[in-house]
Amino acid sequence: MTEFKSGFVALLGRPNVGKSTLMNRLVGEKVAIMSPKAQTTRNKIQGVITDSDAQIVFLDTPGIHKPKNDLDQYMDKAAFSSLNEVDIAIYMTSADDKIGPGDRYILNELASLKTPLFLVINKIDLIHPDDLLTQILAFKDEANFAEVIPLSATQGNNVEELMTEIKSYLPVGPKYYPDDQLTDHPEYFIVGELIREKILEFTRDEVPHSTAVIVEDMNTHQQGKLVINAVIYVDRDSQKGIVIGKGAAMLKKIGIGARREIEALLGEKVNLKLQVSVQRNWRDNPLFLARAGYNQ
Ligand code: GDP
Ligand code: MG
Ligand code: K
């Protein structure tokens, strides 16, 4: 019997190389939610795969995959250094894109990582195999890749191979997320993120970074609606005031916006019940972070 493995995988790459498509294929539609908004400084979970022998948590690392022409934005050292804390970093490109200065810059930055770096060349269905070889050779000189995996996220070619390679690099480890949250109810975390995204969208700058959302339960139905209880945690009383708003107007707005997205995600009517609670310095509280599903 092999030991259970688990770990964190950062998925990097320029827009449109197919990161979301790959996530959808690997994890399933429900879990691979992409936010159109710029994210906070925290790593954002893109998806979690739990099977009988491993749990893989895919993270999106904001601040790295910025548009090519915006080289200054790549200089986000904090984002790069967070890559030292993951188990595998994957740099994804598209087979029909030539290697460019943006790729070179980012790969040069990644060179100092201790983390194993995979190159995933997506969209191989779009090119001739000979051109794939040219691509691989062009990239190979730019970094010391632990693995190079060409695949097609839409067709599914070689996606299993990627999974096998990821697993072979993961350490033996625990399930970070309990089964009931991620196999039966992968929605818990994602629903929390959808609520947090609405807070991000509607409140002032200081608030979103101080906010965590924990979905307490989403098991019962009342009057044909799924009842979801969630708690929004903030650092300070003043932030609680902002999130609730005058006459609870802000909380209502957050609730309505989030409910729409949750209903679209789950495909059913939802009664979303939100509470706001002050939890001072929650970012320094490992138990709280684990419960909220954040790894830092
Ligand atoms: P992201 O910005 O990196 O998340 O990219 P998306 O997943 O949104 O994909 C961008 C576009 O590329 C979409 O139109 C996808 O359908 C397409 N795409 C993704 N993977 C493949 C692939 O393997 N082959 C082809 N032909 N198109 C793909
Ligand atoms: Mg995407
Ligand atoms: K959350």
From TrEMBL:
GO terms for molecular function: GTP binding; GTPase activity; ribosomal small subunit binding; small ribosomal subunit rRNA binding. Residues 60-63 are annotated as: G3. Transmembrane segments: none annotated. It is a peripheral membrane protein. CDD domains: Era, KH-II_Era. Pfam families: KH_2, MMR_HSR1. It is found in: Cytoplasm; Cell membrane. Residues 39-43 are annotated as: G2. GTP binds at residues 13-20, 60-64, 122-125. Residues 203-280 form the KH type-2 domain. Residues 5-172 form the Era-type G domain. Residues 151-153 are annotated as: G5. GO terms for biological process: ribosomal small subunit assembly. Gene3D superfamilies: 3.30.300.20, P-loop containing nucleotide triphosphate hydrolases. GO terms for cellular component: cytosol; plasma membrane. It comes from the Bacteria. Belongs to the TRAFAC class TrmE-Era-EngA-EngB-Septin-like GTPase superfamily. Era GTPase family. Monomer. This is GTPase Era. It comes from Lapidilactobacillus concavus DSM 17758.
